[in-house]
Structures are given as structure tokens and as C-alpha cells.
Design brief:
Immunoglobulin-like; 2 domains; 3-stranded antiparallel β-sheet; 3 helices; elongated
């Protein structure tokens, strides 16, 4: 019962059962009636104390349950009330009400994170000999409206911006004839924020069966 050790109850019951036997004929067991009576009174007092302890623990449990229920009611109602007050203050155009209500105004939203760089660039040729560059990109929470700026280098020259697109694909229809290799880098762009450049994708061209083909492609990180 409660948190009282079972052994304590067993001890009380044991003496309750035996004191009756001893009280019937104390001299038979070499004791006196007052001795038996003292143990009998102590046993009855222990039983009363045990019952009081059990009742007290149950009362404490009941009180804790009642406290949790009332606190839950308080929090549910209080949160709703605070929400109504905050909404009213936000719509009142009166910032002084925040301190009067003992509440903190909401923190202004911070700037969105910088977009992350595209990755895993790959290149293929379509039937017309145009280069199709594809990539993957994953942006942080709160970063929306990202577009992708594609730059190109011809035969190891400088990178020149070609265009910005909303898809994760760019079709290059203007690779100069006679180009031996072409490299691409892509940066994510949101407003005036740019990601770091992706790794550069380099495609090397050759001819097979009379037509232009990609003979190799590789990626490397650009020097800072």
C-alpha cells in the first residue's frame, strides 16, 4: 500500500496474531500479563500509524492529481488568453501595450540563410549537339524562390555568365564549333544572395561515327 514496505505490514500482522495467544496464558510462556499488554498496545498503535500513513499517502496522491488537473486547466486557458492579448497588441499599433501587459514583443524575423551551392553536376548531349547540364540542390528551411546562375568556360578560359534559370537544368545551345572542352559552374541565387559556386563540370569533346560526342567528364573544386 502506498510506498510503505510490505515487510512492515507483515510485522504488524504477525504480532497481532501472536499477542492473542500469549495474552490467554502469559505464565505458560514465562511472561507477565503487563508485558504482553505493553506489546499488544504497541501493536495496536503500530496498526493505527500504518493506517494513517496509508491514508496520508493516498491523500497526497489525490492532491497531486488535483494539482495537475487544475494546473492544466490554468495553462490551457492562460495560453489562449495570452494569445488573444498578443494578437490584439500586434493589431493595435501601440507598442507600449507590451510592457503594460508584462509581455515581450515578438522578435523581428532574421534574414533568411544564404542559399547552398548546387552539387552533382552532369552533362549530356542532345540529338542536335546541345549540351544539357543538370544538377541537384537542397536549400535550408526558409529559403524560397531560388534560381540558378550558370557560367561557362571554353577550352580553359575565364568563366562567363550565360543565364539564370528556375529549373535544375540548363541547355547550352551555343557551344562554339571546334570547342575541345567546356566547363560549367552553377550558383544558387535568391535576391542579392549568392551561394558559393558548385564544383566545375568539365566536358571533353571528340568525334565518333561522324558526330560530336562527350569523351569524358570530370568535376573539380574551383580555387578560392
Amino acid at each position: 500500500m502506498g510506498n510503505i514496505p510490505d515487510k512492515r505490514l507483515e510485522q504488524i500482522v504477525w504480532f497481532e496474531n501472536h499477542v492473542t495467544l500469549w495474552a490467554a496464558s502469559p505464565a505458560t510462556f514465562g511472561v507477565t500479563a503487563p508485558m504482553v499488554l505493553a506489546v499488544d498496545n504497541a501493536t495496536k498503535a503500530a496498526r493505527t500509524a500504518y493506517t494513517n500513513a496509508v491514508n496520508a499517502r493516498q491523500a497526497s496522491k489525490n492532491a497531486t492529481v488535483a494539482l495537475n488537473e487544475q494546473a492544466g486547466t490554468m495553462l490551457d486557458g492562460g495560453r489562449d488568453l495570452v494569445g488573444v492579448i498578443k494578437a490584439f497588441i500586434e493589431n493595435s499599433n501601440n507598442p507600449a501595450l507590451w510592457s503594460q501587459a508584462g509581455l515581450e514583443p515578438p522578435a523581428p524575423p532574421g534574414p533568411a540563410p544564404t542559399p547552398t551551392a548546387p552539387f552533382m553536376l552532369t552533362g549530356t548531349l542532345d540529338s542536335l549537339g546541345n549540351v544539357i547540364v543538370r544538377w541537384k540542390a537542397s536549400q535550408p528551411n526558409g529559403v524560397f524562390g531560388v534560381i540558378y546562375s550558370v557560367s561557362r568556360s571554353i577550352d580553359g578560359g575565364d568563366f562567363v555568365l550565360l543565364d539564370s534559370v528556375g529549373e535544375k537544368e540548363y541547355i547550352d545551345e551555343a557551344v562554339p564549333e571546334g570547342t575541345r572542352s567546356v566547363s560549367y559552374v552553377v550558383r544558387s541565387k535568391r535576391g542579392k544572395q549568392f551561394s558559393a559556386p558548385s564544383e566545375s563540370l568539365t566536358l571533353r569533346f571528340g568525334r565518333a561515327g561522324g558526330g560530336l560526342t562527350i569523351v569524358s567528364q570530370s568535376s573539380q573544386k574551383l580555387a578560392a
